[in-house]
Amino acid sequence: MTREASPPVVVVGAGPTGTTIATLLAQYGIRCLLLDRWAAVYPQPRAVHLDDEIYRIVARLGVAGEFAAISRPAEGLRLLDPAMRVLAEFRRDTALSINGFPQANMFDQPDLEALLRHNLKRYPCVELRGNVEVTDVAEQHDGRINVTYVDRTDDSTHVVDTDYLLGCDGANSVVRARIGSRMHDMNFNQRWLVIDAATDADLGQWDGVHQVCDPVRAGTYMRIGPSRYRWEFRLLPGESADDFRTIQTLRPLIAPWTSNVDDEDIELIRVTEYTFRARIADRWRRGNIFLLGDAAHLTPPFIGQGLGAGLRDAMNLAWKLAGVIAGELPPNALDSYEQERKPHARQMIRLALAVGLAMTAGGDFGNLARRLLVTRMHFIPGMRNKIVGSRTPALRRSAFVGSSHVPRRLAGTLCPNAVCADGHRLDDVLGNGFSVITALPITAAQRSTLDARGVATHLAAPGSELAEWLRRGHVSAAVVRPDRTVMYAARDVQKIYALLPNFKCDRRVRSHA
Ligand SMILES: Cc1cc2nc3c(=O)[nH]c(=O)nc-3n(C[C@H](O)[C@H](O)[C@H](O)COP(=O)(O)OP(=O)(O)OC[C@H]3O[C@@H](n4cnc5c(N)ncnc54)[C@H](O)[C@@H]3O)c2cc1C
Q1: Tens digit of pLDDT for each residue in 363-406?
Q2: 443 CA distance to ligand 1 centroid (A)?
Q3: Which atom of ligand 1 is nearest to the CA of 42?
Q4: Which atom of ligand 1 approaches the CA of 16 most closely?
Q5: Which of 45, 64, 201, 234 could, after both became Cys, cross-link 261 (CB 3.0–4.6 A)?
Q6: CA 208 to CA 417: how far, in whole Å?
Q7: Nearest CA to ligand 1 atom 15
Q8: CA nearest 104: which of 138, 148, 71?
Q9: How many A from CA of 44 to the centre of ligand 1?
C-alpha cells in the first residue's frame, strides 16, 4: 500500500459534477486531486438538455464558446396527445435570455464531458487521475479523511489523506454509503427505452422537445445535433431493450417522426434501457465529506435537469469551500450548502415528477393530471417559472440568503447577467468574489469598506437593465454572491454594507496570476 502527499481537497468522480467543482476550486487556486474509475470520458449518451442558468455555470468554467460549438438552442417543450395533437406548448427563447444564453440547449453529454476534461488542463493545481477505483473513505479522529483507491492498471492500493472529500461519484456512490447517507425514494421507478440515432434526412419536425402524453406508451423526441436525435419511450411490462435493437422493430415507436425516412438512412447509435428514479439523499454531508450531483439526488429526465442539478451543487459549494480553506469564511459557512441546495433539488425533482405524471398517468387521474398541467400550471409551486419560463425557484434562507430585516424578493434568486454600458456581460466584469450592484453612488467611506473586504462594485446606470431589476425588486442595492445568487437586497445600502462577508480569495488568486 502506498501513502501519498495530501491535497486539501479530493474529488471522487470526474463526471460533469466532479470536473465542474474541481475547475471552480482551481479558479480560486485550491489544489485538488480528482479520481475516476475510467481513463477517459464515459462514452454513453445520457443528458441532452441544459438551461440558461446552467449555461452560465459552463461560461464560468471558461468554455461558453466551446459549448456553443457543440450545442444547439431548442424552441421549447410541447405536450402532445397520443394522436400527436398539441396539448400545450412552452416556448423557449433561442435568443439570449436574462442569463445571457439561450433558454434551452441540446447537446450530447460525452461531448460536454470531453470539453470539461480538456479545460482542466488549464489548471495545474488540479490533478486528474483516471483508471482508479475508490474503495473506501474513512474519517480520522483529527477530522482528516483517508481515501483508499485501487489503481486498475496494476491493482496496487493507495491511500491519500485530505481535509475535504467531495463525493461526485454518481448514483451508486461509495462516498454516500461510507457516510451512512441513505437515498429517500420519492416513489418514482419507471423503465424507459432510450434511443440515440443519426440521420442526414430532414425529419421536418418542430425544433423543440416533444413529450407524448400517453398512459400506455409515453414518449419523448428531440433533435440534439445537426444529424443527432434522441427518443425515449416507456417500456411495457415484459418488454426490454432487446426487443428494439433494429430500425424495423423500432419503427412502430418512431414512425410519427420518421415516416418520410427510409430504414437505411437512419443509423442507430445506441438503444438501451434506463430505470428513471426520483431520489434524494437524507444527508449530504458528514464532517468534511460532502455529496454532490447524482450521488445526492436523482431525477427522471422529463425536464432535463439532472446534470444541471450537479452543476448547481458545484457552483454553490465551491466558493464556500474556497473561503473556508482560505480562512476567510467560518467553517459553519459550509452548513448552508445542504440548507440551500436540498430544497431546490427536491423542488426540481417534484417538477419533473409532475411532468412525468402528466405524461404517463392513466385513467381519470391521468386525465386530471394532464388537464391540471395544461390549464392550471400557474398554481403548481415552481411550475410557472420553470415550465412557462426557464427560471428555477429561489434558494431558501440561510446564512447567505436574505435575513429578517431586509426584503427577500430578490434574495436567493440569480442576478441578471445583464449587458453593461461597455458592452460586456455582468458575469465577465464582476470576477469570482462578492459584489454589490447599486443604483446609488458609492461614497468614499463605503468604497474603502468594500475594498477592504474584497467586494467588487457595479453602479447600475439609470434606466439600465440592472437599474430596472433593482427597481422591480423595490431595492436600491443588492449583494451578489460569487455564484451570482443575491444574498441581500435592500433600500438602505448601509444595512447591506454592514452585512458584507470578508472574502478575498478571488483577488488573491488574480493578483498571483
Ligand atoms: C437517459 C438519461 C437522460 C438524461 N437526460 C438529462 C438531461 O437532458 N439533462 C440533464 O441535466 N440531465 C440528464 N440526465 C442526468 C445526467 O446524465 C446525470 O444527472 C449526470 O450524469 C450526473 O453527473 P454526475 O457527475 O453527478 O454523476 P456521473 O455522471 O454518474 O459521474 C460519476 C463519475 O464518478 C465515477 N465513479 C463512480 N464511482 C467511482 C469510484 N468508486 N471510484 C472512482 N470513480 C468513480 C464514474 O466513473 C463517473 O465518471 C439524464 C440521464 C439519463 C440516464
Answers
A1: 666 666 666 665 555 444 455 455 556 688 999 999 999 864 55
A2: 48
A3: 49
A4: 25
A5: 201
A6: 25
A7: 306
A8: 71
A9: 10
